[in-house]
Design goal:
CATH architecture: Sandwich
Bound molecules: heme C
Number of domains: 1
Oligomer: single chain
Order of helices and strands: HEEEEEEEEEEHH
Shape: globular
Distance between the termini: 51 Å
Helix content: 10-25%
Number of helices: 3
CATH topology: Immunoglobulin-like
Largest sheet: 6 strands, mixed
Structural class: mainly beta
């Protein structure tokens, strides 16, 4: 009976265990935002954001609607990486408090986990999500937007690793994207789509 309950909990895709095998999710607190270090705290062979390579957060709405679900994509690109990982947070820009909720994207339960630490959710790769078969690796995360009228900032820190099972020889990249509270856009759904797209793109880059 107990094992059935435990299996059910594990099947939710949430990380409940605090111990770490690092390729299977970094420890919480290394998002690169709000005075947190990035993965370079331990993976420091190279300078942060060394070219050629990058991490990009896609799918963040320029303006969010409370309660709405958005699919975010973290894409890490580096030609020679052999193993990969990331950490992503969603926090209110002013207070640093958790903004909305994060969950693995659909069909991503085996690749992405979410861990809660000191009231902040940290989305990370799981072991299956650390494997690399191309020059880029993508993870999807579902974000449910918070209520309230404060801007939100997303931070991602990602590791393009050499696969040797150590912290050596790994390239770390960071990115951040902001989203404004969006009462405006619910009312203005009729605006010319081209204009909205332009605003969206400006806020994305
Ligand atoms: C507190 C130290 C620490 C931090 C911070 C840390 N790591 Fe690691 N990481 C390790 C250690 C130690 C290893 C190797 C040993 C192991 O796997 O347990 C490792 C290994 C890895 C590997 C496999 C590396 C390889 O070449 O095989 C990946 C991928 C990884 N970490 C991702 C991350 C990501 C992503 C972050 C930032 C969000 C991060 N780590 C932050 C300590 C850390």
């Amino acid at each position: 009976m107990i094992s059935l309950a435990a299996a059910a909990l594990l099947a939710t895709g949430m990380r409940l265990v605090a111990s770490h095998e690092y390729p299977d999710g970094a420890p919480p607190g290394f998002s690169g935002g709000f005075k947190e270090d990035s993965c370079t705290a331990c993976h420091f062979s190279f300078d942060l954001n060394q070219s050629p390579g990058r991490v990009v957060i896609d799918g963040v709405p320029a303006r969010f609607t409370p309660g709405e679900k958005y699919t975010l994509t973290v894409t890490l690109t580096r030609a020679d990486m052999k193993r990969a990982g990331f950490q992503l947070t969603a926090r209110f820009k002013d207070s640093g408090a958790q903004a909305g909720t994060l969950a693995p994207g659909s069909a991503e339960q085996s690749r992405v986990g979410v861990e809660l630490s000191s009231g902040i959710q940290y989305a990370n790769q799981k072991k299956a999500g650390a494997s690399v078969s191309a020059t880029d690796v993508r993870w999807t995360i579902e974000w449910t937007a918070p209520s309230g009228s404060a801007p939100v900032v997303f931070h991602a820190s990602a590791n393009a690793a050499d696969g040797d099972g150590t912290t050596n020889g790994d390239y770390v990249y960071t990115a951040s994207v902001e989203s404004e509270p969006g009462a405006c856009c619910v009312e203005h759904r009729q605006s010319p789509p081209g204009f909205l797209r332009q605003v969206f793109n400006m806020q994305q880059r």
